[in-house]
Amino acid sequence: MIRLRKNNREPYIEAVLNALHAKQEALFRTSFLELHPADQADTFLRFDAAERQQVYAYLAPDELAVLYDGLEVKNQVLFFEEMDEGYFSEVLNHMFTDDVVMFLNDIDEEQAANFLKKMAPEKAKKIETLLAYEPETAGAILTKEFVTISSADSAEQVIEHLRKEAPGAEIIYYNYVVDEAGALAGVVSLRDLITAAPDEPITNIMSRQVVSVPDDMDQEDVAKVIQKYDLLAVPVVTEAQQLLGIVTVDDVIDIIELETTEDFGEISATKGATDLQLSAFTAAKKRTPWIITLMFFGLITAGVIGRFEDTLEQIVLLAVFIPMIMDSAGNVGTQSLAVSVRGLALGTVEHGKFWRMIRREFSTGFLIGLLCMIIVLGIIPLIYGEWLIAFIVGVSILCTLSISAVIGSVVPLVINKLKFDPAIASGPFITTLNDITGLLIYFTIATSLLDRL
Questions:
Q1: Is the distance from CB of 107 to CB of 77 less than 8 angstroms?
Q2: Residues near 57 by beta carbon (within 8 Å), at least 6 away in sequence
Q3: Mean pLDDT, residues 259-263 taken together
Q4: Which residues contact 170 (CB under 8 A, 6 or more apart)?
């Protein structure tokens, strides 16, 4: 039997391809279906259009659904039009509801409605319920494939129930106890079921302290709940505690990746343009607005320099150190920005810790600035023989880095208080703001000491 390992992936894919090319359906099915679903998806991506048509012919809809779940949504959207509508509708019937919802949200509304009509009525009804939720909320990302049990059952009865229901459930490690009205009453782990006596009532072994989330909770907060309590899944409930579905840890991993990508795009002013598969035109269209905005901020920077033109005319040497002042301010500000945004994302910037964080960042900026000032006081006189210029540059760097660190940490906190994504306080924005601050400090100090130069 050929097994897929890190070092022999290519030979195995080659064997699967050979079976496909030779039209050896039985051999292809045996070797392909033996793979982990994630590896099936990776192998499927290697096939060309003609080879994929053979795959559709060889695999039943429920078998294709397994690998289709493992594809990224953008690839699902790319391939679905290759299949017969009836066949693909059956594929959707066998996919988990949350994955179907993600797919339908990424295609044309008319196409989505058409597939819903062709799907099994019960499945379509569940999906329509999820589609009604606001995007990126717990209700929009939950799955309906989970196991519910009654507190009146015994452990043996529940295990027998699992034998029937497990194949269609996304997770069976947690089994949720609901009352007659469908409200969440408790949870029993698979381990507790296995270790309990066969005739032990569920009411005696279930935990009544169930961690759950409301259906309107933001998906990022759902991820934090699962991370905090080390859960494999979390139940989603209404205000009346009606159990709607569950969000599983694999979905949370995808959410964390998505949110991190969004934050990275915000911080680097490349939101929506981080996908390397985008064309140069599309990437430029998404990135241009920020660049143009920052260009106008650059005019403000130029205006600051122009305002102190007389100072520069009298002491031309001051111009030499402008890039150093601006770069240092921008770099320290961006570091503080990263610390602040990360703290907000992890929930470590809580009430009462705001001023503590500001003091720490100011102290950090001050210590960095102090070290830079000492270096400047030693280098500038050695190269240029100007002690007073060295003093101006050194004090300017000390003040600038101290203030830049505060600006970099405060701006995202203020934006977060205004209920906006703190990541929009992007690196380029903070850098430009600190450039202006640094130049104002530098030239103000230089102008005040002009008579001594």
A1: yes
A2: none
A3: 65
A4: 96, 143, 145, 146, 233, 246, 248
- pLDDT tens per residue across span 145-164: 999 999 999 999 999 999 99
What is the CB-side half-sphere exposure of residue 312 using CA atoms within 13 A? 13
pLDDT, residue 208, reads 93
Residue among 257, 284, 258, 280 nearest 270 (CA) = 284
pLDDT confidence bin for 267, thresholds 50/70/90: low
Q: Can you tell me the distance from the alpha carbon of 132 to that of 154, in angstroms, rounded to the nearest whole number?
A: 37
What is the DSSP annotation of 92-127?
HHHS-HHHHHHHHHTS-HHHHHHHHHHS-HHHHHHH
| Bridge partners (DSSP) listed for residue 245 | 236
The yes/no answer on whether domain 9-132 falls in CATH 1.10.357.20 is: no
9-132 and 280-452 agree in CATH topology = no
Which is nearest to 270 in space by CA: 394, 144, 428?
A: 428
Pairing of strands 174-178, 213-214: unpaired
Distance of CA 77 to the CA centre of its chain: 20
| Contact status, residue 421 vs residue 308, Cβ threshold 8 Å | no
The second-level CATH assignment, the architecture, of 148-259 is Roll (3.10)
What are the residue ranges spanned by the domains of the chain?
A: 9-132, 148-259, 280-452
Question: Of the ranges 70-84, 186-200, 273-287, 294-308, which one carries the lowest mean pLDDT score?
Answer: 273-287
Residue 181 has pLDDT above 60, yes or no: yes
For 248, the 3-state DSSP assignment is strand
Longest Cα–Cα distance in the chain: 95
Distances, alpha carbon 149 to alpha carbons 95, 144, 177, 208, 237, in Å: 23, 14, 5, 14, 16
Q: How far is CA 228 from CA 136, 140, 146, 250, in A?
A: 19, 21, 22, 15
CATH class of 280-452: mainly alpha
Pairing mode of beta strands 233-237, 243-248: antiparallel
Which two three-digit tokens encode residue 101?
């919802």
- What φ, ψ does residue 154 adopt, rounded to 5°? -95, 165
Residues 6+ apart with CB under 8 A from 203: 151, 152
Going from the C-alpha of 326 to that of each of 333, 341, 430, 443, the distances in angstroms are 11, 22, 12, 12
Considering just the CA atoms, what is the radius of gyration of the chain in Å?
30
Could you tell me the two tokens for 368? 């960095």
Least-confidence region, from 95-109, 198-212, 243-257: 243-257
Q: Which amino acid is at 376?
A: V
Tokens of 146: 């989970």
